[in-house]
Amino acid sequence: MLASTLLAAAAAAAAAGAALATPGPQLADISALTFRSYDPVESETLVDGFFSTSGHTNNWAVCTSRFWFNYRHASPGGDALAPLHVANTLSMYRTVKRLGIPDSNIILMLADDVACNSRSKFPATVYNNNRRLLDLYGNNIEVDYRGYEVTVENFIRMLTGRVDEHVPRSKRLLTDDRSNILVFLTGHGGEDFLKFQDAEELGSQDLADAFAQMHEKKRYNEIFFLIDTCQAESMYKRIYSPNILSAASSLTGESSYSHHVDFELGVSVIDRFTYYNLETLERVHREDPNNLADLFATYDYSLMHSHVGIRNDLFSRPLEKAGTLVTDFFGGVQSVELTERAYQLSQKAAPKESHNLSAIGSPDAPRLGALPSGSPSPRSYNNVLPAFKNTLGVLLRTTAAFGLVGAAGFALSQI
Amino acid sequence: MKVSLEPLSTRLFADRRTHIIVAIWLVLAFAAPVWWKTTEVYRAPLPFERIRQCDTPEALSLKLEVDIHLRLSGSAAASLSHGDAARVTEQVQRGISQVFSEAAPQSAGSRRVVLAFSVDGAVDPKSWPSDATPSDIDASLGKEHGRNGAYDVFVDCSSQTESVYVGQNRALFLQLPSGCSKDLIVSRTIATLSGLFGSEQRSLSKLYAGRRSRDIDYKSMRTVKYAPQYQIVLSLLVGNPQDNIVTWDIEKAANAYIAPFLESLSNISDFTITSQILNFAQLPTVPDDQRQSDGSVEFTMRPKSLTSFINSAEWNLASVVSLAPPINLILYIPPASFSPLVLLHTDGSPLASNAFLVPQWGGIVVRSLPKNTPRVHYSVDALHHIMEIFVEQLRGLLGVEQTHIVNSAQLLSGVHVQYASSPELGLTRWEVDRLFRARTVLNIVDAAQTLTSLANLLEQLSGMVVPDHIQTLVARSLDSIEHAKLDLEQKRYSSATFYARDAITSAEAAFFDPAMVPLLYFPDEHKFAIYMPYFVPVTVPVIIAIIREVRLRFGGTLSRRLSKKKTA
């Protein structure tokens, strides 16, 4: 229909002596056909497969818990609660693995001292249930950061991508702008901070800045930030980057509670918020149609004893009615695209020698010198050190300055 | 022993006190600048203005110049009257420029990338020998014909029907019927060139518009994120080696089929190929079974169940050797209990290639083996068809756009359009050129944005140490951006690709340097909080003392002067 009208117009225009004589469309029509009309070849309906609706292609999860089971500073609440946070994290780790996120896409940070602790009656195991049905510390877990490596600095470095060059691939967060990330933090916290290893704190502003750095460098498509600590809502209050959904176990001013105690182990084994989340998530399977609004609807104050805080003002998609599926964050559902045809290649005999693939460029392109790989000098642990590069000069000047002042004072006193 | 202190006169006492207070203040006055200078953090000076200038819309509005050489053959020249040949060139130039000037929206403050054409033409009777087909001439041009950004259009007027043949070596062949007029040549040339470069212009305009809407863009979802190095991992996964032990001649096959393909892209990224064989590779989901008419059972999987085909928990596909992002190409042999395994379309029709692609990750080919074949060896010839599928999947994953003329049915109605493929390499020079141009533009833009983010971060945190190597990297990145833009203007596309790649690599190295963590540097409020408990209790008496001294010394004269003024 378009073609016939164009041809008619072309004929008419030709008769009137337009810029382009017959045959074929006029310049303006060429322009319209090329740039503004529907191109059947590039049409997306030719592609068959299964694609996620949120536009993400891979899922990542960052699960952290840090509580140092530290006997020297045995604070009253300290020893009792340590297995709890590890069990929270491992339960969440097990859930996301079961739903399909591979180990290469999970960063697990644990102060990993609970399973083999001499106080534990069941060595080499971590349970999240007093019936001890499931050993979370099984034989298929991969802890990326353990013990001393769990620090605020490493956490921020991992999130923003500024790791040292010797850090292995499994410890890096290799996300891109089509990754959905689930960030799960648990431990002890207070207003605007989260405790790390009894010695440090992660501030809510630092966390918000780290997310902002990730947004600047397009390191995520969407983030679901789940946090289970006391006064957890304060940790997400300062986030200001788009596409981040947050859920916290308690509001500012409220504490989060543990669920039950295993009397043989002598410690609480799981927190209420994580426990009720897991109850719902255990029924989720890889192709589950439930959305996050359904998950949030299962939260109940009478069971959790704390109000759950949800922040979705930065999140653009709706949470209900197939807007955001639970598996968009917890599962590793991958899109697939069927390959319709193969590219016709001529039959080749095996070559005599193999091609050398490295360091080949096209003949007319100049080769620059090799790029410096990372920092040429070893990483200095004291970041103020470079300021004193001219130490000798500075020392001399300072001595001279004070010497002058001293001389001036002496001279004055003699007046 | 009796110590006698000399009685101080009040005058001497007052002078001594003044001397002491002045001495203390002199020390403070001399020491303060010394302290300030020595506690300064070392910040290598960065060219912030240059960085800001690089990210403006004017700086990022690029023009890609393409040269078109029209070669009119003897028969074409014969049908044209004298002097028409020059007019053909001129009209094509005007027409193309007009069409492409309407391509990108011209709003102020927006960045745009446009293609600009310069056409020149000549009558070259030897360019198209009679009885030569376009593909012969194309083959005779050879792979090194022309350069990125210079293309030939051969026009011949001696055939019965009209046809267009897009060759693989940067050449376009128009066959027009005998007795073609100037207008026919002009209009067909303009339509063909617009259609051919139109899809490139469309994708360049979309690239700058960004991914704002939520609709699915398959091409950007499928293409792996750019990295200067990739490793291609070829894996043979055998479901159950008790049914079949499978081996393959992968090194020879990869060197024959995949290595030349990747070498032609070496200007953009470096590729390494590794391979492995994994046994006992179980599927995480069970395929559906269908009973066939002849009594055998066939196992099928549809796209929905293919989403969980990759058993990431058990298949060890991650490499610990290299940090380069992997692209996985998998040949999967299902166990006999699930053979033959057939992949279906969503509507149930079988898929001919039995292969699928996971966007941004890799590709998988499923091949079922016949029963009772305990040992199978895939030779290079047997791997030929699988390599063809892998090459097709690699093209999709690396963002290679198929050459086609937009809306050819309407732009060139009645014309037979044919596209050459490249059986030797897997890529035609048109496709490589287009990929290089797109990648160059993207790299320049990304490098400019990365540098701007770095500048923002550094300005925000005035206490952050900036080591010298950051300054070197930033300067190198800026120089590479400018060099790349200069090369683009002067149509040296290979050099531009190289410098653009260097620009983005340096910019990312600077931005992701381990020293750039904001957490390690204290904001100014912390510094006040540390110094104040020490210095405030010390400075308060000193300040009060000097105020008292000044008032004692000059207060008397001041009040006397004031009272003098009053009385006078």
UniProtKB/TrEMBL annotation, chain A:
Residues of the signal peptide: 1-21
Pfam families: Peptidase_C13
Keyword field contains Signal: yes
InterPro entries registered for this protein in UniProt: GPI_transamidase (IPR028361), Peptidase_C13 (IPR001096)
Annotated metabolic or biological route of this protein: Glycolipid biosynthesis; glycosylphosphatidylinositol-anchor biosynthesis
Alphabetical keyword list: GPI-anchor biosynthesis, Signal
Top-rank taxon: Eukaryota
Stretches for region Disordered: 354-377
Family: Belongs to the peptidase C13 family.
Protein name: Glycosylphosphatidylinositol anchor biosynthesis
Automatic annotation (TrEMBL), chain B:
Alphabetical UniProt keywords: Endoplasmic reticulum, Glycoprotein, GPI-anchor biosynthesis, Membrane, Transmembrane, Transmembrane helix
Pathway named in the protein's UniProt entry: Glycolipid biosynthesis; glycosylphosphatidylinositol-anchor biosynthesis
Topological category with respect to the lipid bilayer: Multi-pass membrane protein
Keyword Transcription: no
TM spans (from-to): 20-36, 528-547
InterPro entries assigned to the protein according to its UniProt record, in alphabetical order: PtdIno-glycan_biosynth_class_S
Keyword Transmembrane belongs to the record: yes
Subcellular locations according to the entry: Endoplasmic reticulum membrane
UniProt family annotation: Belongs to the PIGS family.
Protein name according to UniProt: GPI transamidase component
Origin species: Polyrhizophydium stewartii
